[in-house]
Specification:
alpha/beta, 242 residues, seven-stranded mixed β-sheet, 29% strand, single chain
């Protein structure tokens, strides 16, 4: 008896774009804002279409690289063109197929918390497009910072972007309307729709700079902030203390 494959709206949108449907677009649902369109083309952008923070992160990459949440591979392909060894992972089977068809040979369908292969270590773990959000929750951030120690080579680094989304909770006077007894305001629930297909809900973490610094230092990392943009998104480098 064959199993029905799990919904993969992201993978199917990326594949549709790759096959020539340049209008392919996802609909993003969240518990903090109105539904929003996300064109598949965004995952295929070139170096000069990337925000400055992403270009900075690519400049800071070194050694063997793990591109986590690689999508359609825009970062992996740029790094491969610069001569780096790159392994790309994504939880979407369709995205992994797109990665492979676009020339990212070492691409695998994994989530962030899958165990590394025996002896597999990376000099850089790259997490872009608010990529730190892959950890899901504050508990997930704590868990990931421990897990990453097994993935990183000596002197290895995590390069990640995250955002402070407290502005979503400002009233008309600019005062923050936060429920201090509720979950952390940066823990957001999302789901994606492509065509008639909606994927399962998932958690995404928007961790502010103070939270990132506190959690990373507690887990034994040096923390260096490398830049910030007008949307309150920032790039951080976490390096294992020797």
């Amino acid at each position: 008896m064959s199993r029905t494959p799990a919904p993969d709206p992201v993978g199917h949108a990326l594949m549709a774009f790759l096959r020539g449907n340049k209008a392919a677009s996802l609909l993003v649902h969240s518990n903090v804002s109105e539904d929003e369109a996300l064109p598949a083309s965004y995952f295929f952008r070139t170096l000069w279409e990337m925000p400055e923070l992403e270009r900075t992160a690519l400049e800071e990459c070194r050694g063997r690289i793990l591109d986590a949440g690689a999508g359609a591979g825009c970062h992996s392909l740029e790094l491969l063109s610069r001569g780096f060894q790159v392994k790309a992972i994504d939880a979407s089977p369709g995205a992994v197929q797109v990665l492979q068809e676009r020339g990212v040979r070492h691409a695998a369908c994994h989530n962030l918390f899958d165990a590394p292969a025996e002896g597999e270590h990376f000099d850089t773990i790259l997490m872009l497009m608010n990529g730190l959000g892959l950890v899901g929750t504050l508990d997930g951030l704590e868990k990931f910072l421990v897990h990453a120690r097994a993935l990183l080579a000596p002197g290895g680094q995590i390069l990640a972007t995250s955002s402070d989304v407290s502005y979503l909770y400002e009233d008309e006077e600019g005062a923050l309307m936060l429920n201090l007894n509720g979950p952390y305001y940066g823990e957001v629930e999302y789901s994606m729709t492509y065509g008639d297909e909606t994927g399962p809900a998932f958690s995404w973490l928007f961790a502010d700079a103070g939270i990132v610094q506190d959690y990373a230092e507690a887990a034994g990392y040096e923390v260096e902030f490398l830049g910030e943009d007008e949307q309150q998104q920032f790039l951080v480098r976490l390096t294992l203390r020797s």
